[in-house]
Each structure stands twice: as C-alpha cells, then as structure tokens.
Amino acid sequence: MDFFDDIIIDIKQLTFSRGERYICKNMDIRIPRGKVTAIMGPSGTGKTTLLKLIGGQLKPDSGSILLDGDDIPRLGRSELFDAREKMGMLFQSGALFTDMTVFENVAFPLRVHTKLPQDMIRDIVLMKLQAVGLRGAAELMPSELSGGMGRRVALARAIALDPALVMYDEPFTGQDPIAMGVLVNLIKKLNQALGHSSIIVSHDIKETLSIADYIYIIADADVIAHGTPEQLKQNDSDQVRQFMRGLPDGPVPFHFPARDYETELMEGR
Amino acid sequence: MRNRGVELGVGIFMLVGAIALTVLAINVSGLSLTKQQDTYKIYARFENVGGLTARSKVTMSGVTIGKVSNITIDRKKLMALVEMDIDGDVDYLTSDSSASILTAGLLGEKYIGVTTGAADDEILKEGDFIEDTQSSLVLEELIGKFLFNQASE
Amino acid sequence: MAAIVNNLALLGRFALDRVAAIGRSGLILMHAIIARPQPLIAFPLLIRQLYSVGVLSMVIIVVSGLFIGMVLALQGYTILVDYGTEQAVGQMVALSLVRELAPVVTALLFAGRAGSALTAEIGLMKTTEQLSSMEMIGVDPLRRIIAPRFWAGVISLPILTMIFSAVGIWGGLLVGVEWLGIYEGSFWSNMQNSVDFFDDIGNGLIKSLVFGLVVTWVAVFQGYDSVPTSEGISQATTKTVVYSSLAILGLDFILTALMFGDL
Predict the structure, then answer these.
(1) Does the residue B150 lie in any domain?
(2) Domain for residue C21, yes or no?
(3) Which of A23, A28, A124, A144 is the least buried, fewest Cβ under 10 Å from its Cβ?
(4) Pairing relationship of beta strands A197-202 and B79-87 according to DSSP bridges
(5) Are residues B4 and B67 part of one domain?
(6) Size of interface A-C (CB pairs under 8 A)
(7) Closest-CA distance of chain B to residue C81, Å
(8) Which residue range(s) make up the domain with C237?
(9) List of chain C residues whose C-beta atoms are within 8 Å of the C-beta of residue B6
(10) How many angstroms separate the CA atoms of B59 and B114, rounded?
(11) Looking at the domain assignment, is residue C33 inside a domain?
C-alpha cells in the first residue's frame, strides 16, 4: 500500500445527515497525494455532498477532515479562506460566472487570492487557457461556449491558483463522446504535469476506471469497497459487481419498494 | 466600450433624480433658499381656535408673515394658546395689534390675520403676547345664537 | 385522533419553517449591510447593479408617472369643478402624488420590474452553482453578489420615486392647465401653499427608502433561499412580487399613520 505513504486528505469517522437521512456515517477515506482518486457510487449517495464537506461549504455532524493536518470543519473564516487557496473545484454545471468573460472568469481566483500585477495575471490566465486549448476564446462570454468548452474553462479556473488538490464533480456527465475524451485526457495530463492530487466524483465507470489510480465506492452512507481499478474488477461482492458492470438488478433493486404486485393489481377490481 | 455606457446611464439616472428632487423642492413645495431666515415667537390666546392647526398661515393684509407652530391650552386661563413663528424681518407688529382667526373662502382653511394698531413705540418681540384676539367663527354657535334670538322674540 | 395530532404537527412544522425563514432572511440582511466591501472592487459592481436595477426601470416609471398624473388631474377636475375650486387640482395632484402614489406605485412597479429580476438572477446563479463556486474560490457570495444588489435597490427606489413625482406633476399640469384651462398661476400657487418640503416630500422620500429596503430585501432573500430548480425559481419570483407588494401596502398604512396621522 505505497499509495498511502503520503496522503493529502484524511477523513476520519465522518458523519453527516440531512434530516433523518444519513449521507455518510462514520466514513473513513484517505486521498493519496499526487494521484487521481475516484469516489464512485450510484446517484443520490451524497458524493457531491462529500466534496462540499471537503471544501468546507458544509459542516459535518461529527468527524474530522484533515487537509495537510488542518481540520477543515474547525477552521475559522480566514483560515478557511487560506485553505481554499489550496483547492480547486470543478462543478457539475461548470458554474462559470455568466456576467464575466472567459478571461475574467479564470482571472477571478487570482484577483481574489493574489496581489499580482495586471500583466502577470494576464500571462497566467493565458497559460491556463492554453493548457485547456481555449486561449482563443478568452474574450467570449460563457453563454457563447458549448457545454464541453464551458467545462474546460471551469477547469482552467479551478487550476488557476495551482492548487494542491483539484476536485471534479461529475466531470463527464452530459458530455458528448468527443468532449468526454478531451476531458479525460485533460484531467490525466494536468494531474501529471502539475503534480496536484485529484478527486473525481463520478458514476461513469469506463472513463473513471481509465484514469483513476485508486477508487472508493460508496453506498448506503459508507464506503463499501476501495482499491485500485484492478482490485475492484476482481471484487466479488454482489453490490460492487452490480455497480461495476452496470447490472439492472442486484442488491440495489430495480424496483422501488412497493407492496406485492399481484395484490395491488387485484385490488383495482 | 460597454462599461462606459453603463456608467453614463447610471450618471444620467442620478442626475435626473437630483433634478426631479430640485424641481419638487422649488416648484412644488415652494421651498426657497432665501426664506430660511430667523423667526421669532409671539403668542396669542383665543377663546376658540376652531379648526386652526399647526402650520396654518399667519398673515397681515393678506401677506404671509409667519406660521402657527404650536397650539396648546393655557392652564391658568383655560384658553387656547397659539404659538406663532413670525419672520425675522417683520419688525412692525405693535403691542396693540389684534389677531383674528379667519377662513379662506367659505370652506377653506383657517388662518390668522394680524392687524396693527396705532402705538408705534412698542414693537412685539420674542415671547410677547397679542392681547386683542378674535376667535374663530363657529357655525354651530352662530346658528345657536340665531335660534335663541328667534325664540326670545 | 391521530389525524388531529398529525395536522397539529404539520402546523407546528409549518410555523417553525416560517420562523426559520425569517431568521435566515434577517441574517442575510445583516450580512449584506454589515459587509464592508473593498471600495475598489465594490464600486464598479454597485454601478453595474444601479444600471440594471435603476436605469432600466426608468422607462416604466416615467410612463406610468405621466399617466397617473394625467388621470389624477382629470378625475380631480371633474369633482372639484362642481365646487368651483378647480384651481385646487394642482394641490390635489401634488399632494396625492408626493405623499402617497409616487412612493407606493413606484415601489409596486419596482417589485415587479427589478425585484423579480433580482430574484430570478440570484436563483439562477444558485442553480448553476455559481454561488457555490464563488464560495469555493473564497469569496463570500453575500458580499460579492448580494450586497451590491441590495444597496443598488435601496439607492434606486427613492430616485425613481422622485422622478415619478416630478413627471406625474408635469402630467397633471399638461391636463389641468393645457387641456382643461385652469389658470397656471393658481395651479402652482395652490400647490406651493399646501405642499411642504420636509413634511410632504421628505416623508415621501422616507417612505420610498423603507420600501426600497423591504423590496430588495425580499427579492434578494427569495433568490438566495430559492430551491435550485427551474420550478423553485419561478416560485421564488412569484413570492417576491406577492410578498413585497403586500409588505409595501401594509407598511404604507403604518408609515402614513405615523407621519400624517396627527394632522
């Protein structure tokens, strides 16, 4: 397990609930530094919530999230502000600021966190846009971009400050195959070139398996399996097999819980 | 430049607002900057102020020389005590002036009309009283008197 | 029995939700007011919001002000002419506009024009995760998004109200003097005799300031607190218009009673 010699995020005994429902319960996750870690699971299991917990946007009921030794839920406002400088997040919808140009969107985190002179900000922004292949689109408004391009701009914005950790929330959802291929390559390339750690939250098995170094599968508010892609393919638990192969029925039932089929049909008479 | 248009628009917006306020102030409320002058207070007691209110005009020969600032009851004499703010440049109200409560038109608002007397030497100052007053005409009292006279004839 | 208990529980939960919502909106208001943004960043943002909230509302305000002034003069004339006091049209138009109609109608139009737009815009930003991503970058969306919009609303409404009054009185002048033939001198002098700058125009301004605060508060809160779906945004927009209209009319009564009640 040489992966875990150097970990960037250590989640211990994390519990978070919404109303009566547990999103995670005593969850333990460790994210190795410099690797691509995927967190997978069926829709609605709170994977996005987990990212928001790491980002400090939500506070857990109990447990700790250590980012380089700082316990995120217990940070004060200004410490959290500093901690967020180390994180970049790519939102599911891209979340570009619609009232700014592409250039200003990428420059935004730089202007907030640094006091760099204008020409330096300009150089950095152009470099980041070049990395995602959209330097030519710098002066466009987000509404003029296609979905795939928008997500690439959002990626450029997420890496603008050269964060130690980049979080991707469902990066592949709703993309056409070409845009998806571009994104997969980009995430992998950027991870290698810039040396940051990546967390990918996704339920797209094929794409995620192709770039992830380590995978956590969560369901029912806990981690049900973790390991390298190879290890997980060998995993013989029913739940994991159903998810990895995309079988319609299994421990996660196809049918929403209901009364007996026959009885209900007969009742109508 | 798009930004310039926005700034220009906001500038025009603010200016139009300021102009509207000025127009309202000067044309509509008749606020004039020169009118912001000193006033002095004089008092008068009336049997009945009947509908006179604070902010009513005080006039002399029909020209406004001040306004009513407060109306209370004089506890000793049990009469209405009217406090008036008279413009500072009105320095010709004599101590034997008389004040009467008049009505503008048949149904109009009440105001105070002041007429000066003959004594030139004693000019009213801050805090002085106009002793000679004539109360408001109260329609009910007039009718009452009229009926009483009719009956007694 | 169980049904009654259930309904009671529902009612209690509903009430608690309402109280919690009021609490949240109060916190947002506090935050927006207390937030001391850096002037270099905040000023351009405020200008931009003044443009979209104030300048873009000007056309509807000017047009409605003009027509309301004209209608007031026309209605007033037909009544006052029976008493031979048609010169009082000016006074009537000015007083009803400055004290009552300008603040209220402007605020209602503002709630429909700018308030709903604010709610929809903020709601959409929430739906598209722009608020979240701003937070992740380390910028408080309450400061960056909410505060400039809030202040733009509070500044704009009194200005719009003044414009409404001025245009309305001009409309009254058009109908009264130009069309119905009231003598212009008595039109103005009656008006100037009865309208007091501080008591009437000043109180109208105070009213519009209060309305501006309430309308933008409601709009901003509904947007920020909306359910991030297209249905949620449409509900929030409707709520903005309904709640702020009710608040305007209710507050108008209270303010009028406080300001003019003793006259």
Answers:
(1) no
(2) no
(3) A144
(4) unpaired
(5) no
(6) 45
(7) 15
(8) 47-260
(9) 47-48, 51
(10) 6
(11) no
Q: Are the beta carbons of A31 and A7 closer than 8 angstroms?
A: yes
Helix (H) or strand (E) holding A182: helix A177-194
C54 has a chain B CB within 8 A of its CB: yes
Rounded mean pLDDT for each run of 10 residues along chain A, 269 residues in total: 75 83 83 87 78 85 85 84 84 83 90 86 90 86 85 88 88 80 85 87 83 85 82 78 73 73 78
Q: Which is nearest to B44 in space by CA: B78, B73, B82?
A: B82
Whether there are 3 or more C-beta pairs closer than 8 Å between A and C is yes
Lowest mean pLDDT segment, chosen from B109-118, C172-181, C230-239:
B109-118
Residue B14 sits in the same domain as residue B86: no
How many CB atoms sit inside 10 A of residue C44's CB? 14
| C-alpha R_g of chain B | 23
Q: Beta partners for A166?
A: A88, A198
**How many structural domains are present in chain C?**
1
Nearest to A112 among C130, C133, C139 (CB): C139
Structural domain including B3 reads 1-33
ipTM computed for the complex: 0.76
Decide if B148 is inside a domain. Answer: no
3-state SS string for chain B? CHHHHHHHHHHHHHHHHHHHHHHHHHHHCCCCHHHCCCEEEEEEEECCCCCCCCCCEEEECCEEEEEEEEEEEECCCCEEEEEEEEECCCCCCECCCEEEEEECCCCCCEEEEEECCCCCCCECCCCCEECEEECCCCHHHHHHHHHHHHHHC
Residue C18 within any structural domain of the chain: no
B61 CA: distance to closest CA in chain C (Å)? 17
Give yes or no: residues B24 and B93 share one domain. no
pTM for the whole structure: 0.77
3 state DSSP class of A28: strand
Q: Tell me which CATH code domain A34-56+83-250 carries.
A: 3.40.50.300
Q: Using the beta-carbon criterion (under 8 Å), do C58 and B55 form an inter-chain contact?
A: no
pLDDT tens-place string over residues C198-250? 888 899 999 999 999 999 999 999 999 898 888 999 999 999 999 999 999 99
Q: B9 and B62, same structural domain?
A: no
Q: Is residue C226 part of a domain?
A: yes
Angle at the Cα of C213 from the Cα atoms of C250 and C96, rounded to 5 degrees: 50
Domain ranges of chain A: 34-56+83-250
B66 close to B50: Cβ distance less than 8 angstroms: no
Please tell me the total count of domains within chain B: 2
From the CA atom positions of chain A, what is the Rg in Å?
20
Residues A218, A226: Cα–Cα separation, whole Å:
9
User: Same domain, yes or no, for B74 and B123?
Assistant: yes
Interface test with B, best of C46, C48, C51 (most B CBs within 10 A): C51
Distance in Å, alpha carbon of C79 to nearest chain A alpha carbon: 52
Interface check for C75 against chain A (CB to CB < 8 A): the answer is no
- CA-to-CA distance for C74 and C69, rounded, in angstroms? 9
Same-domain status, B66 and B81: yes
Residue from the list C48, C130, C138 with its beta carbon closest to the beta carbon of A95: C130
